Amino acid sequence: MKGIVFTEFLEMVEKKFGIETVDTIITESNLESDGAYTSVGTYAFKELQSLVVNLSKYTNVDAQDLIHLYGIYFFDTLTKNYISLFDHYKNAFQLISGIEEHIHVQVRKMYPDAELPYFETHESSDSKLVIEYHSERALYSFALGLIERTLEHYNEKATVTKKLLNDSGTKVLFTIVKNG
Ligand code: HEM
């Protein structure tokens, strides 16, 4: 996983829960990196998992809720760092439909070792978009936060529902229906 995912995660934890919480979860997580991340480095995904598990224990907030919060937070990181990719899209459905074929393709060019999910579009119209998320990292709550924040970014109102297609959450169906 790219370092930016770790540095921004710890920044969110600091803003929402304080610097002591950052120190505590780093200590509790027994990290190979010792929690010293740089945005251009690459680190094991299991370090993020440990940090989330320990944050959940320490704050009593459900782990999926924390990952969801992080998806919402990470969207702003993306708009700050990769605005040229966003300029390409006029609305949320266009952007979300473009993740697989364009956005993450560009990401892979910049970072050949990026660990990215795979999205498959099942249905696409002006009012409804159905996509399937595939990733062995099962970061579907992160995806949900990003989708919701994308809609907000374009001032669009929609209902997003997710359906886990297996117990581990490595395959998840998202249905996005425009309101009104
Ligand atoms: C311009 C917009 C975007 C950029 C530049 C971008 C870039 C990235 C980057 C750098 C990572 C981390 C890769 C790694 O750690 O190795 C990532 C992961 C991810 N991205 Fe995107 N992304 C964008 C939009 C989106 C959107 C709108 C979604 C909504 C579903 C999305 C879903 C994900 C997910 C779920 C992951 C986590 C990896 C996984 O699940 O396996 N991305 N993306």
Summarize the structure.
By secondary structure, this protein is an alpha+beta fold. The chain is built from 8 helices and 4 strands. It has 2 domains: 59 residues; 111 residues, H-NOX domain.
What this model shows, in words?
It is a single chain. With 180 residues, this protein is α+β, with helices and mostly antiparallel strands. It has 2 domains: 3-61; 68-178, H-NOX domain (Alpha-Beta Complex), CATH 3.90.1520. The protein is 54% helix and 16% strand. The protein has 8 helices and 4 strands, in the order αααααααββαββ. The protein has helices at residues 3-17, 19-29, 45-59, 63-81, 83-87, 92-97, 99-110, 140-153, and strands at residues 118-124, 128-134, 158-164, 171-178. Strands 1-2-4-3 form a 4-stranded antiparallel sheet, covered by helices on one side. β1 (118-124) and β2 (128-134) form a beta hairpin. It is globular. The termini are far apart. The mean pLDDT is 97. The structure holds protoporphyrin IX containing FE. Residues 1-2, 5, 78, 82, 85-86, 96, 99, 103-104, 107, 114-117, 135, 137, 139, 142-143, 146-147, 150 line the site of protoporphyrin IX containing FE (HEM).
Strands, count? 4
Q: Largest sheet, described in full?
A: 4 strands, antiparallel
Could you name the CATH class of the largest domain? Alpha Beta
Sequence of strands across the biggest β-sheet: 1-2-4-3
Give the CATH architecture of the largest domain.
Alpha-Beta Complex
Strand proportion, as a percent range, falls in 15-25%
Contiguous runs where pLDDT drops below 50 for at least 5 residues? none
What radius of gyration results from the CA coordinates?
16 Å
Instruction: Output the CATH topology of the largest domain.
Output: H-NOX domain
Run of helices and strands = HHHHHHHEEHEE
